[in-house]
Amino acid sequence: RKEVEQDPGPFNVPEGATVAFNCTYSNSASQSFFWYRQDCRKEPKLLMSVYSSGNEDGRFTAQLNRASQYISLLIRDSKLSDSATYLCVVNPPYSGGGADGLTFGKGTHLIIQP
Amino acid sequence: NAGVTQTPKFRILKIGQSMTLQCAQDMNHNYMYWYRQDPGMGLKLIYYSVGAGITDKGEVPNGYNVSRSTTEDFPLRLELAAPSQTSVYFCASSYAVVGYGYTFGSGTRLTVV
Question: From CA A42, how far away is CA A36, in angstroms rounded?
Answer without folding.
Answer: 12
